[in-house]
Design a protein that fits this description.
419 residues; mainly beta; five-stranded antiparallel β-sheet; 26 strands; 10% helix; globular
Length: 419
């Protein structure tokens, strides 16, 4: 597998208050915050006035290291490390023939875990082992960046990492660079996240303060004027947080709901979807909502959903998709959000670009008088379809439409107020 690098620039201008920005990797997996703990990769303070920037470079060359951890749970240094590739395993040994004794990793060899990297502790006592990546390998600027840590690996024990470079950005958290993060992070919503493998070589992310006082991050917003609202018009924005794919899932037994839903969610999270799972205890039905990453249509989200189900043997046999739909956020002003349903029978279902424009006066008219359903009936016609896993081919090509096109249905608009 070829090594790639991603250069990221987080920037702000006249935020109005000093804000701490923290970056960390949180790859999906059952051991996160249980056996393995993420590390604060980059931390900086964005200034209340003027401009601030944080530059960060990720390289996909992975490595294991033995971190030196201070009393404040901060990694003092990466100590000894070894580059490793997917499908390889290395062993940590302690050479007591020298004084002082020296820890070292052996040269990697092929591992039975073909899709993971592994490290075995053979030091004779419990140690901490960290997984990270190596920038500028083979140069005078070579650096090891620990991003995941196993704090107490027993003698003879093996740590296994299936690292997906999912990077998250948080604000106002009280962490320092290289500090090992606590489980409380699971209850905090990031302002930005992405699978770095899906980004271009260089990405700029602007941090802004919204009208409601909350902070948000926006890719490709370098042309915004200071103090200008992010949604100047009410045209459906193209940023990835405004389109949602929804599906209703049926399970053969309530006992398998949480286990299979978690496995499905991890597959989708690794593809940069934000996953929301809605479930009532004891039920055999549940809902899942996917916030779409950039350049992704609802149709592609459905394909990825089916792929996630088919990749899990238990889900493949015991889970069905009963229904599906989508939404696009047409506007967001303060705490008021206006949404449009995306009809699976419309062309918009297959497109990832901007949707139809809607004016402020239209919103006002709708609020006062309701919606004229006859005027805004969807132009396309399609039979109702129940989608079963493994029988999705009938939804993988554009539907027949009237006059060669489909459209969003105004009658299925909704407005929400957020706190």
């Amino acid at each position: 597998m070829s090594v790639f690098s991603k250069d990221l620039t987080f920037w702000s201008n006249n935020l109005g208050e000093d804000v701490t920005l923290m970056l960390c990797f949180t790859p999906p997996g059952p051991d996160l915050f249980v056996k393995q703990f993420p590390v604060a990769w980059k931390v900086t303070t964005l200034s209340a006035t003027g401009g601030s920037t944080l530059d960060a470079t990720f390289t996909s060359q992975l490595g294991f290291c033995m971190p030196q951890i201070g009393g404040n749970s901060k990694i003092v240094s990466a100590s000894n490390y070894m580059a490793i590739n997917v499908g390889q395993i290395t062993t940590l040994n302690l050479n007591t023939a020298v004084n002082p004794p020296v820890y070292h990793f052996t040269a990697p060899v092929p591992s039975p875990a073909s899709k993971a990297i592994q490290a075995v502790n053979n030091a004779g006592h419990p140690v901490a082992i960290a997984l990270g990546f190596i920038n500028d390998m083979g140069t005078n600027d070579e650096t090891m960046n620990p991003v995941l840590t196993w704090k107490n690996v027993g003698q003879g024990m093996t740590v296994t990492g299936e690292f997906t470079p999912v990077l998250r950005a948080y604000v106002t958290l009280n962490y320092q660079a290289s500090e090992i993060l606590k489980g409380e992070l699971r209850n905090t919503k990031p302002i930005w996240e992405a699978n770095l493998a899906s980004l271009g070589p260089k990405t700029k992310i602007r941090i802004v303060k919204d009208a409601d006082g909350a902070f948000s991050a926006h890719m490709g917003s370098a042309n915004l004027k200071d103090g200008a609202p992010l949604l100047k018009t009410l045209e459906a924005p193209s940023d990835w947080k405004t389109r949602v794919y929804k599906a209703e899932l049926a399970f053969s037994s309530p006992k398998i709901v949480m286990r299979t839903a978690k496995a499905i969610g991890e597959h989708l999270f690794a593809k940069s979807y934000i996953v929301k799972f809605i479930y009532k205890e004891g039920a055999t039905e549940a809902k899942i909502e996917l916030t779409l990453p950039p350049n992704t249509s609802c149709q592609q989200a459905e394909r990825d959903m089916i792929s996630a189900i088919e990749s899990e043997p238990l889900a493949l046999k015991h889970v069905q998709i009963k229904g599906h739909g989508g939404e696009v956020m047409m506007s967001s002003e303060g705490s008021f959000n206006f949404w449009h349903d995306i009809n699976p029978a419309s062309v918009a279902w297959y497109k990832a670009g901007k949707g139809n424009a809607i004016t402020r006066s239209a919103i006002a008219d709708t609020a006062r008088n309701g919606v004229d359903e006859d005027e805004y009936e969807d132009e396309s016609e399609v039979d109702e379809v129940d989608l079963e896993v493994g029988k999705a081919s009938n939804l993988l090509s554009p539907p027949e439409t009237v006059n060669g096109k489909g459209s969003l249905s105004r009658k299925s608009s909704r407005a929400t107020l957020t706190n």
